[in-house]
């Protein structure tokens, strides 16, 4: 397409937006509401995934070693554990260290169980390459010699994996539904514009105008609708996220988990919302033109 032709299409698309008046405002509003909800959902999903990933990375298999196991037998057990395909690292924690951890978490009264009265086991703390592999590793570890038990968080770990998977699926599903609604609304708005100009379109076709020549101004009009409709959601999401990040970061500081930093994250979200806005606007316009360009 020649530059002068494309410039003409741009001018025509702006004129069409102005001619439509309140219909254009309605289309902008539809995109604004949709992208605002999509932006909020994406922010929640991406941060939940980030925190869930941090939590998952802390999920470990604690292999409790039988009491009375010799150092040589422990070495054999470690070798057997390391031969499992999904093992990332293995760290030994003596029963004395385990007792120190208990005292640090629950209080000095547990110091009474020191020395020969220590009821705890030596432990191999095993990290897997993927958090979801902890269940399989725990089951295999329980079948090995000199293993008293293997714990991985049990139902809590499984529940965490289900929650993360559910958030991802529902979040993506709702976002797609919202985008579909926006495409439908934009398509109907552009369709009204086309109906008001169908005589003009018919004349253009009679004088030999190609389908692409007729289609481009409407596609650009839809793209502008999506672009302008993305401005307010970007502002609201950026300001809102910085505010929420400031509040929740202080609360999460003690847990060791953090939300995504506003800088790069917001730039990515902003670009994504602009692209989504332009795309759904162009698609909506393209769909509404199909009926009028059939030969």
Automatic annotation (TrEMBL):
It is a multi-pass membrane protein. It comes from the Bacteria. The chain crosses the membrane at residues 21-46, 170-195, 216-244, 264-287. It comes from Liquorilactobacillus aquaticus DSM 21051. InterPro entries: ABC3_permease_C (IPR003838), FtsX (IPR004513), FtsX_ECD (IPR040690), FtsX_firmicutes-type (IPR058204). GO terms for biological process: cell division. This is Cell division protein FtsX. Residues 173-291 form the ABC3 transporter permease C-terminal domain. It holds the Pfam family FtsX. Residues 59-148 form the FtsX extracellular domain. The keyword Kinase does not apply. It is found in: Cell membrane. The lineage of its organism: Bacteria, Bacillati, Bacillota, Bacilli, Lactobacillales.
């Amino acid at each position: 397409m020649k530059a002068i032709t494309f410039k003409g299409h741009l001018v025509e698309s702006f004129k069409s937006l102005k001619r439509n008046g309140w219909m254009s405002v309605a289309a902008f509003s539809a995109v604004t509401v949709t992208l605002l909800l999509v932006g909020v959902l994406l922010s929640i999903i991406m941060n939940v995934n980030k925190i869930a990933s941090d939590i998952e990375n802390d999920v470990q298999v604690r292999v409790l070693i039988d009491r009375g196991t010799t150092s040589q037998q422990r070495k054999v057990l470690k070798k057997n554990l390391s031969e499992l395909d999904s093992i990332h690292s293995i760290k030994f924690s003596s029963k004395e260290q385990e007792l120190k951890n208990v005292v640090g978490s629950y209080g000095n009264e547990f110091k009474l169980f020191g020395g020969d009265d220590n009821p705890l086991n030596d432990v191999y703390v095993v990290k897997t390459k993927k958090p979801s592999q902890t269940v399989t590793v725990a089951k295999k570890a329980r079948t090995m010699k000199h293993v008293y038990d293997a714990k991985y968080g049990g139902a809590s770990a499984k529940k965490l994996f289900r929650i993360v998977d559910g958030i991802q699926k529902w979040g993506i599903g709702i976002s797609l539904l919202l985008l579909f609604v926006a495409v439908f609304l934009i398509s109907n708005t552009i369709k009204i514009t086309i109906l008001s100009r169908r005589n003009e379109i018919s004349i253009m076709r009679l004088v030999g105008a190609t389908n692409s020549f007729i289609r481009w101004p409407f596609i650009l009009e839809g793209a502008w609708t999506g672009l302008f409709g993305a401005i307010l959601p970007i502002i609201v999401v950026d300001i809102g996220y910085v505010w929420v990040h400031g509040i929740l970061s202080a609360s999460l500081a003690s847990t060791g988990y953090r939300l995504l930093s506003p800088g790069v994250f917001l730039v990515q979200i902003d670009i994504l919302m602009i692209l989504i806005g332009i795309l759904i606007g162009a698609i909506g316009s393209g769909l509404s033109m199909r009926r009028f360009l059939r030969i």
